[in-house]
Here is the input.
Amino acid sequence: MILNIYSYFRSQDKEASETDISKKTAIASGISLQTLYSIRQEDKEGVVKSPAPKIGVSSWMPVVDDYARACIRREILSFYERSKFPTLKELSKRVKEPPVNLTCSWTTLNKLVKQIGFRNKKLENGRVVLIEKDDIIAARNRYLRLIAEIRKSSNPKPEIYIGEICVYPNRYVAKCCTVDDTTLDPTQKLKRRVRFTIVHAGGKNGFVPGSFLIFKSGTALKETHDSMTHECFQSWFQKQLLPNIPANSVIVMDNAPYHSQFSIKMPAINSNKSEILQWLREHNIAYETSHTKYELIDLVRKHKSKLVHVIDQMAHDAGHELLRIPTFHCHLNPIELIWALLRSKLEENSDTYERNCRVEEIKYALERITSEDWERCLLHATQVEDEFRRKDRVFDYVMERVDTSMSDESSDSDSSGE
Here is the structure.
């Protein structure tokens, strides 16, 4: 079929260049130019194979975004508050209800909870329960402790929250957190239209003046982190954010990849051994010459925590402090609630919104979000922080009374039932 399309365009315009005909064919058939070139080369060799089908993702992937994952995390931890251990069987019942509204098999649910940092643990009595990984708990505890210390100080620092979102003409790319924990309808489809990526920041006094950034980011149905780059975010951070926030502020943001570029490039597993050794020498890290490449890479990773992120250094040089919200904890960032308000204001004029969402309309919707809205969202985020502190205290209390000889359970099913 693709070769027929190519032949048709060539017959219609015999004077056109090969590049123009190839582009037209690729667009008409929905394939890349590289795929087209491969097919034409196979045709010249006399053996044409159909392109391999793309491996589809599980049906729950488009629905289970960071918001839904954060809801699932809170649901798992709430079991301990009810003096119960979370199991897949019980969790599968809870996630079918609002705000998650997720229907899936136990195998899929088990994969999901592992993705967000939980593991199956077998108690002494043979019961398999869900336990959050230590590093996730530690990151959340650390963030909650630091933000509490900042607020309790004699001279609290202004809190500035950073966030990004993609806006489509008819839909957001993902669910937004809401104050009443309602969710969007996952059955509605996104259309392939031009989308906008928005970067903004704000605090209790509203949006930071001059920090609004919006740009077109193609038509692919991807998350925000797929359309943002290190260079773009760092430029915005240095030129639009830092000059416009109060002195000695605390800047809060998530762990998106473009937030976390190191100031010094780390060697990777595909680096040459000589490059890894050079990096270790430059950072005065002792090593044995007899170590293999994999031992050296493991040594590099152990010293990763000593490296400084580019954004952290920018904030420090400007006299500010930077905090990162733990992964899958979007409820702790009030700007996620602001994005929900933005969506509702855009949809107030649904006819225009469905037809064509322009930059002017987005700006107008943002202008209608007041400092009172920000204060309400900040209050809700603070309440979620208190909820996590309470859940963590209960978890510590329960785990202190559980036999420490729990073993890892590799099974993908919840064999314990109740």
